[in-house]
Every structure is written in structure tokens, then in C-alpha cells.
Amino acid sequence: MSQVLYIFIPMLAAIFVPFLYKSVKNIHTGWFVLAVPATLAIIYATYIAKVAKGEVFLAELPWIPSLDISVVSYLDGLSLLFSLLITGIGSLVVLYSIFYLDKHKEKLHNFYVYLLLFMTAMLGVVQSDHLITLYFFWELTSISSFLLIGYWYTRDASRFGALKSMIITVGGGLMMLGGFILLYLMGDTYSIRELIAMAPELMQHPWFTWSLVLILLGAFTKSAQFPFYIWLPDAMEAPTPVSAYLHSATMVKAGIYLVARFTPIFAVSELWVWLVTGVGLLTLFWGSFFAVKQTDLKGILAFSTVSQLGLIMSLLGAGAVAFHVNGAADTVFKYAAFAAIFHLINHATFKGSLFMIAGIIDHETGTRDIRKLGGLMSIMPLSFTVAAIGTFSMAGLPPFNGFLSKEMFLTAMLSLQNFDLFGFDTWGVLFPIVAWVASIFTFIYSFYFVFHTFSGKYKPEQLPHKPHEAPIGMLISPMILAAFVVTIFFIPNIIGDTFVKPAVYAIQPFLYSAPGDIDIHVQAWHGLSPELFMTIGIVLVGVLLFVALPKWQGLYNAFPRALTLNNFYDKIMLGLDVGLNRVSRLYMTGSMRHYLLYMFSAIVVIVIGTLIVKDAFTFTFKGAAPIHPYGVILIIVLICGTCIALLAKSRLTAIIGLGAVGYTVALFFVIFNAPDLALTQLVIETISVALFLLAFYHLPKLGKSEERIRFQVNRAIISVAVGVMVTLVALSAHSQKLVPSISKYYEETVYSLAGGGNIVNVILVDYRGFDTLFEIAVLSIAGIGILAMIKLRMNRKGKAHENK
Amino acid sequence: MEILMAFTIGFLFMAAVYLILSKSLLRIIIGTGLLSHGAHLLILTMGGLGGEAPPVLDEGAKTFADPLPQALILTAIVISFGVTAFFLVLAYRSYQELETDDISLMRGSDEDE
């Protein structure tokens, strides 16, 4: 129970932030906030030892019990690792933000409320065992990320970036919800653990592939995979602590988490392996290739994040292969999942520190443009050290943790080509090659980042501020992260045993019976293996290309702007906006006649269509009354009257035509034995005609029809169609009566029960008196309305236009 | 007889829809008038036109015309009269205020956009 409440601690703490901000002006609000992630990190740290042994912790808080929806906190190796990253890096980011954001100039209460909200959302995502609450927290991360990216809401770029990330991630989130619902329908449970247990049955289900693709779309949009990565570079408009926290260490890994979490369910599918590995590698290559083009420090890091996320994703895909190999625990495929989690930890450490360094450079020099920067090594030695550690690790050099995970990555990719399932034996050769080329670009942009900023010519005249070393408080967080980068290199197996193996056990539960069974031992020196030669190749080619960078970096500008994905996105958004506007202008003409045309056509099409589809039209003379000779005469008169009303040029003739129709109808009532109707019809027709004459005394003459001929044709077709439709419906309704009228009852009881002889009148006031009551109400309302229209007149020129 | 009436009513509906689709408010109101006549006759016809006598006792007749459709039509006549009267005055007032009875000119004001 309390385990569930830990998730909500940041959200509850967020309530107090605005009060603290308003009442305690002297102390930076961040110091109070810092206590929240720090406490949580300590709480989650107490689970480490037990989870490493393979224990899991489960707590449930019912939310909507009748729909079987509850908030479930499930702590196993994978979710504990993510929870520790979220709270641990969260603490460092809050600490960093205390020095980064000015307490007088910034709206800190907004910032920390959003940040704490995000923390709850993220903890909820990684700990939820329930599909619906997982989705709930997932969208909460999208919303809080939207708020954080748009933190400086007066800037256009911030709002654009926030909107873009919102549209893409929420779009993906909705896809994911669809996948979740399909999973629920297939397995009849919301619990991920139970779904994993029934994975073999799920595979047989026809919806299996649909839910797989939909859930992957959610994961790919969130984790900025190709081609959905485009929101991430634009999200760099957020304050740097946000970029460091959300867009490198935590939120973008939610998709990774999702893929890892659902691997036991979907990995049996060939499509899953191909999609996850393929998209991951493509993203890896694409991101690293375009990172070299960027001129903004955070832009480089954004593309680098995209690329590294692709790396982790491809490793998860390769890890899924292990589900297809007998005795996989003894083969080389076991490396992939381990490498994925290991690199995930490593990436969080070095990328977090690099973002913080980029923020420091921005803060101290006033620019993030790499073309203006240079020669800061002697001015900012501490920042340089941290940046160098981070970038060398990113490039995959010893003695930093990136080296270890990159070696394991290459091992995993090399092992894929030995795998003779799904055509990996033919195409598998590509995997290590793409990985190798991408690693070279990674090497280049890493060096580009650190050396173009800190070495080279010092250009003080181009910098807005006079640069100096950052305050020590700002440097604490990146230094701690950099310390991790180095430490992990020297004690990889402690990290492996404590964090990585329990997480791998959660991803591949069928392969091992306990985390301890995973016999992977990370070695910095692993002999003269192909991986080592590949790394040497990366370094050699990378250094050569880096030295020659000024000569070929210009080639990037040759890439046409029209073919970029951002351009596609902009075109789509603009196209939707303009196109849909055009579509609604097309039919929303403002003309009542058009709308009536749509309505009548719709009615005709639906009714006649139904008649045809259901084969409902029948025609019989059976049961019809004999033809009345007066009736025929009346029909002729009625049609003449209608024609007069239809074709009259003057209003008087039209009104007389209508009157003639009305009186003929009254005569119909006479011959069809309806005396009350005839009476009413005569009176009312008289009054109506009088009213018409009264009102139209003031109306203009009927103008000669100047309407376009085309519209007249439409009009004629539609009106004939309506007439035909009514006739057809009347004929078939009359020809197939199902039950006799209930009027026998009225005839028999009208005198004995109601004491009257006129059946129609008795029905009106006795059997069905309520109709009459409200018909009286209708008349009264019409009368009052008419009175109001005539009496109440706002002065046209005066108060009528209150909008002006 | 019902068959003939069905065709007549179809003709009435046709004329009504044609008038409702015209530009002038006056024609539209005449169209609604024809439409309600058509609807009333349709109710009567669908109830069956048989029966020797009006639905009033004490005539010694064996079969009556069906009283229920007549009650329904009576209600409908009154309601359509109320609505038509309201509509008429509305047209009259809108002509007074807008100085046109051409509905193609009544497209809302520019401020709406």
C-alpha cells in the first residue's frame, strides 16, 4: 500500500510548492523540492538488495474496482532500476536547477510543480502493472513534458516545440492505448504479469500483430525513434535541467521501458524482432549522422540522444532473439538484453552530465552556438573535465563506461549474423556494418562537441557574456554523474549484479530462474576479439574524419531542405489546417438552401437505399378501400391547387392556391368520414389564409426567378425524389400491415368507460388528454412569441449591436 | 383509394420540397403549408380509408372510420397552425428589419467569421 503511495509523493508535494514559493522568498524553492526525490531515492535504494535476489514487490490501490482498474505498484529489477534513475537523476537535476534558475527572475513555482508532476508520472509509468493506469501515467508524462518544454511560454520556439512534442507523443500514446485494449480483450486481464504468463496463448490470437504494432508505435514516438524523433530536437527549447532530465535520462526511456517490459509477450513474433532491431539501428545511424551537422550544443546532444536510444532499442530487439533459440542462456544472444540495460544506465549518466555542461556553457557565455565557442579549456577547466569524461564515454573509449557497453553492443550485433532464423543469415551482415558506421559518427560528434567548444581559438568578441567558471553548486551534479561514468568502468560487475541482471531477468523471465543464473561477466579486457578490432577501427577512422571535419561538414548543407522529416511534418500540419479549412468552406456555404439540399438528399438516399437493400417494397391492392368518385375529383382539384401555388408569379395567386389546397383537404376529411377534422381544417385554413394576406401585404412581390439553372435542376431532382420516396414508403407501408388497429377498444369502451359518443373527442380529452394539454401549450407559446416579436423592438441603430 | 392517395401525397411532398428549396421566404412558408397538408393526408390514408360512418356512436353503423389517426391529425393541425403563424410573423418581421425576403442574402453578419 505504502509502495503505491510513494509514486504519488511528488504530486502531493507539488501542492505545497506555490505556497513555499510565495511565502519563503529568501530561500530558493528548489531546496525544499530537493528533499522529495532524495527521500524517494533512499526509499527505493532499500529495495535493491532484495530485488537483486529475484524478489518482487507488489502493492495495489483500488481505483475503480467495478471496472477492475487499480493503481498497482510492481517493483522488479526493471522497474526498480528505472525508479532509481528517475529519483536519483531527479535529485541531481533539482540540485542543478537551483543554481541554474534565478530565484528572482524565474517563475519557480511553475517549474517545480511541473517537474514534480512529471516525477510522479514517470514513477507511475515504470511501476504500473496495470495497463490502464500505465496509460494514465504515460499521458501524464506527455502533459507535464509539454508544460516543461513550454516553460518560457513567451518564446515562439518554446511553444512550437511544446506543441510538436505533444502532438507526436500523445498521438503515439493513443495508438498504444489501442494496443493495450486489444491486449486486454485477448487476455481478459489488465495485469501485465498475468499477460506475460499467458504469452504463448496470446500469440495464436488474430489481434496479436495489431496490438504489437500499436504498442510499438507508442514506444517509438515516446523514445524518439525514426521517423518520430523530430520532436526531440525542438524540445531543446526547454530549460536545460528539463532537457537533461526528461529528454536524455528519463522520459525518452519510457518507450525503451515499454519495449523491455513487453518483450516477454511479443518477442515470440518475428515482426517484433525485425521492427525493434531495424528501427533501432536506423535511428542509431540517422541520429549519429545528423548530429555532426548541428551547430547548437543542445542540438548535438538531442541527436546524440536519438541515436543512443536507437542503440538501446536495437539491443532490445536483438535480445528478443533469445526467445527463439533453444538454450539461449548458454549462447551469445544473452548479451543483447544485458548490454541494453547496461548502456541505458551508462547513457543516463553521461548524457545527463553533458546536458548540464551544455547548460553551464550557455549560462556562462550566453550562447550555445558552437561556431562562436572555442578555447574555453583554460577558462572553465572543471567543466571541460566533466565534458571530456562524458564525451569520451559517449564515443566509447576506455576507461569510461561507454566503452564497456559499446563492446557488448558490437558483440550482440556480430552474434546476430550467426542466427539462421527470419533471414538474418542473409541480411544479418548489415547489422554490424551499420552499427560500426554509426559508431564512427558517434565518435566524430563526441569529439566535435568537446573540442570545438573547449579547444581551438578563443573568440571573446562573439560571446554575449565574459566567460568564467561556473559556480561550484552548478558543477556538483555533473561531477557526480561523471564520477559514476568512471566508477562504472572499474566496477562494472557490481553494477551488473545489482542492477542489470535483475532487470534482464525481468525482460527474459523464461530463460532464467533467478537473476543469479545470468552468467555474464563484464570485462574491460576481453582478449583480441573482433569487437576490439572494430573499436580500433572506429577510433582510427573517427580521428581521421574528425580532423578533416571542416572539409566535409559543408556537405550536409547539400541535403535538400525539402526532403527533411521536419519539412514533412510542417507540410502535414499546414496541409491539414489549410485542407480541412478548405473542405469545410466547401460545404459550409452559409446558404440555407444548400443545407436543405444535403438533408433532403441524405433522407432520400437512406430511405430508398434501405427499401432496396432490405427488398422492402411491395405493392398490393388488397385491403384498400374502393375508389371514391368524389375522391378522384378532389384529387384533381388538389393537384390543380398545388400547381397554382407552385407556379404562381404573384403572391396573391400563390396564397389562393394554398387556400384551395387547404379547403380541398377539408373536403377530403368530409368524404373520409372525419367531421371534426373537416371543421377544424376549414376554420384554421381560413385563419391561415387571412394571416398570410395580412402579413404579405407588407412583403415584396414574388421576384422573377433569377436562380442559376443548375440549381433549379438539383432542386427539381431532389423534390421529385422526395415525392417518389414518400409514395413508395406509403405504398409499401400500406401493403404490409402487420397488426390490426387498436381502435376497436376505443369503439367498444367509449360510452361505457368515458361516457361519450364522439370517439375522436373522447380520445383527445380523455384517453390521450396529455397530448391536448401540450398542444394548448404550443399554441400559447406561439401566441406569446408572436406578441413578443411584434411588441419588443430593440432600437436597431442603438443597442442592437452590443458587440460593437 | 389508398393507392391513388399515396400518389397524390407524393405529389404534394414534391411540390412542398420544391418550394422549400426556393429563395423567397414567402415560397418557403407556402411550401411548409403544403408539406403539413401532405403529412396530415398521409396519416389519414395510412390509417385506412375504409369505414362506413364517422367515428360517432348512435348511428347504428357497423364499421367506423378509424378514430385514432383523426385524433392525431387534429393535434397536428393545431400545432402546425401555431408554428405557421409564428413563422409568418417571423418572416414579416425579418422583412421589416432586413428589408429583404431573399434568404440567399441572409447569411449572417461578417462579425460571425
From TrEMBL, chain A:
Stored Pfam families: MbhD (PF13244), MbhE (PF20501), Proton_antipo_M (PF00361), Proton_antipo_N (PF00662)
Family the UniProt entry places it in: Belongs to the CPA3 antiporters (TC 2.A.63) subunit A family.
Keyword field contains Calcium: no
Residues in NADH-Ubiquinone oxidoreductase (complex I) chain 5 N-terminal domain copies: 64-112
PANTHER family the UniProt entry points to: NA(+)/H(+) ANTIPORTER SUBUNIT, NA(+)_H(+) ANTIPORTER SUBUNIT A
Descriptive protein name: Cation:proton antiporter
Start and end residues of each MrpA C-terminal/MbhD domain: 637-701
Location of the NADH:quinone oxidoreductase/Mrp antiporter transmembrane domain: 128-421
Subcellular location: Cell membrane; Membrane
Topology within the bilayer: Multi-pass membrane protein
Residue ranges occupied by any MrpA C-terminal/MbhE domain in the UniProt entry: 716-791
Keywords: Antiport, Cell membrane, Hydrogen ion transport, Ion transport, Membrane, Sodium, Sodium transport, Transmembrane, Transmembrane helix, Transport
Lineage: Bacteria, Bacillati, Bacillota, Bacilli, Bacillales
Bilayer-crossing regions: 6-24, 31-49, 80-99, 111-128, 134-154, 166-187, 207-232, 244-266, 272-292, 299-323, 335-361, 373-395, 429-451, 472-495, 532-549, 595-613, 625-647, 654-672, 678-697, 717-735, 772-790
From TrEMBL, chain B:
Entry's transmembrane regions: 6-21, 28-51, 71-92
Location (main, coarse): membrane
Any single Pfam family the record assigns to this protein: Oxidored_q2
Membrane topology: Multi-pass membrane protein
Keyword Calcium: no
Chain segments annotated as coiled-coil in the UniProt record: none
Location(s), subcellular: Cell membrane
Highest taxon of the lineage: Bacteria
Keyword annotations of the record: Cell membrane, Membrane, Transmembrane, Transmembrane helix
Keyword field contains Membrane: yes
NCBIfam families registered for this protein in UniProt: PRK08600.1, PRK09094.1, PRK12660.1
Family statement drawn from the similarity comment of this UniProt entry: Belongs to the CPA3 antiporters (TC 2.A.63) subunit C family.
This protein's name: Monovalent cation/H+ antiporter subunit C
Organism: Lysinibacillus contaminans
Organism classification: Bacteria, Bacillati, Bacillota, Bacilli, Bacillales
